[in-house]
Amino acid sequence: MAKSARPAKKTTAKKTVAKATGSNSGSVAERLARALSQKPAAPVEEPEPPRASVGDKVTFKQSDTVYTISRVSPNGRQVDLRLEGTNIERFRVNLDDLAFLERSTPRAPARLAKPSIDTEEVREHLTTAQHSSMDHLSAEIAILKKYLKDKGVRASALKALDDLCDETQARWAEVVAEILDSLPG
User: For 27, how many CA atoms within 13 A lie in the half-sphere containing its CB?
Assistant: First the structure.
């Protein structure tokens, strides 16, 4: 085929821009303002594939064999499958290749129950500790006072030991009351 002798038309940059914007008139600023005022199309969100969990029953799309998911990869895109009643396993199978037949109900995260506090038991334990501590302290102070009295220590020093015992008894009572007040119920 022979080339035509006619030279090709030259298009100017203005005509090219006008064709691209769909208008022949308007300044660049107007066209830019129009382009910016148009809302971009919202990206189409693909539905999230079903989350696999151990125990789900699945099959390959082209097969009738039912497998059980035995492990899910950390990224959730691959699973290991086990054929029930046999020792046949398939490893690292993509979820896209599977059809879900039966979904196992996911277990709720374990919630630690608040321990119930038996206030009578706590009260009994505190009272026992208080009496044991005070009996031991009183006995030790009595022995110490007898020893110091034999050595000729002033009576005011011995009185200070009695005061210590009384203050300890009062402090124990305050602490026990505070603990019992903080208990629920």
Answer: 3
* Residue 26 token pair: 């308007």
Residues 175 and 128 in one domain: yes
Does residue 15 sit within a domain?
no
Which tens digits make up the pLDDT trace of 148-161?
889 898 888 889 98
Domain that holds residue 63: 57-102
What type of residue is 47? P
- The continuous run of DSSP H or E covering 160 comes out as helix 155-182
pTM of the model: 0.38
Q: Could you tell me how far CA 162 lies from the centroid of its own chain? A: 56
Alpha helices in 10-115 (DSSP H): 13-21, 28-37
C-alpha span between 50 and 66 (Å, rounded): 17
| Length of the chain counted residue by residue | 185
Q: Note the pLDDT tens digit of each residue in 10-47.
A: 555 555 545 554 555 568 888 888 888 877 766 666 66
Tell whether 129 is covered by a domain.
Answer: yes
Q: How far apart are CA 33 and CA 166, in angstroms?
A: 88
Enclosing H/E stretch for 147? helix 119-150
